[in-house]
């Protein structure tokens, strides 16, 4: 049905009506006082979201721009880095690091499993000459629905004393607690079309004190993503280039909504929806791809053994107007992923679980009495 599509993918995520309507007006001058007020306000709001006093810079570009900016602004050619890789986005970090000629040690875990903090600990402890410049990892690995232990890994980096932590928090920021200052994360990259509840086009790099110190040594080539001009201009409530002005209108509206809800309530809502999704899936006889305790608050990956995951997605899309994400690379057809990130309420969770159960029933693949999945989901939503 036209205009009825429910985006339950891990980005782009649904956008609230008031945020959309903020965007549908003429852009204003990006050097105007009115725009400066928006930059000032959103910069403060971004610091609140990151739980930091560090600088949070806004870039016009997708999340990968923020990832790349994090690397090229803190490192130099030939620098030794450790990259965590347990999925598509970990792989992306490795690719970016290699593209810039860094000396990359990859710490791997199987897709669907979390990175092991002890592996980072071992490599960092062995580095007595302090040759490692950075540890780079994905917090919520969107391709598999795994949350990595960013707190523990950051702690190992702090014990090392020299390396900095660069984290992709694209699908964890605004979904679960990431106190940047308290954990000592040096660089956080994020993007607008995920927890921020606005369309794609803006990305954000938070740079802590140690990240700026590293920036003073960094010699990797940069121009559009050189963060020094962003810092200089943000301090005057401005940008180095013409930003996506209308997305700034949206950003201000969405961050204001988030402030009203409050960080703890946002985190609780995501945790509750995650649990209601996981339990509903299991109760209808499907298998979770990732063990529950390692599940991301933003995405639940499901492995419907002996059923084509793409067929399930197709029925959900055509019969229910619900879009789920598929598996990537070798997981295509093997898993599907339910996004429950951002502007998601109980109704969305109830509809995706019951539509999924109906889909299995239609396909003749429901192996439990009908209603068991949704019953479980409802009971969790009423309990928690
Ligand atoms: C979406 C996403 C990104 C950013 O991807 P873009 O397409 O560049 O916005 C980066 N990391 C993770 C974990 C993501 O989910």
Brief summary:
The chain has helices spanning 17-23, 33-50, 63-72, 88-99, 117-126, 150-160, 180-183, 209-217, 227-234, 245-261, 263-283, 309-320, 346-362, 372-383, and strands at 6-7, 55-60, 80-85, 103-108, 132-138, 140-141, 146-147, 164-168, 187-191, 202-207, 287-288, 299-303, 322-323, 325-326, 336-339. By secondary structure, the chain is α/β, with parallel strands linked by helices.
Can you tell me about this structure?
The structure is a single chain. The chain is an alpha/beta fold and 384 residues long. 44% of the residues lie in helices and 16% in strands. It has 14 helices and 15 strands. It has helices at residues 17-23, 33-50, 63-72, 88-99, 117-126, 150-160, 180-183, 209-217, 227-234, 245-261, 263-283, 309-320, 346-362, 372-383; strands at residues 6-7, 55-60, 80-85, 103-108, 132-138, 140-141, 146-147, 164-168, 187-191, 202-207, 287-288, 299-303, 322-323, 325-326, 336-339. It has a seven-stranded mixed β-sheet, sandwiched between helices. Strands 11-12-15-14 form a four-stranded antiparallel β-sheet. β3, α4 and β4 form a beta-alpha-beta unit. It is globular and about 65 Å long. The structure holds pyridoxal-5'-phosphate. The site of pyridoxal-5'-phosphate has 13 residues, from α3. Pyridoxal-5'-phosphate (PLP) binds at residues 10-11, 62-64, 89, 138, 142, 168, 170-171, 191, 194.
What is the string of helix and strand elements? EHHEHEHEHEEEHEHEEHHHHEEHEEEHH
Tell me the fraction of residues in β-strands, as a range.
15-25%
Lateral arrangement of strands in the main beta sheet: 2-10-9-8-5-3-4
Number of strands: 15
Q: Treating each run of at least 4 consecutive H or I residues as one helix, how many helices?
A: 14
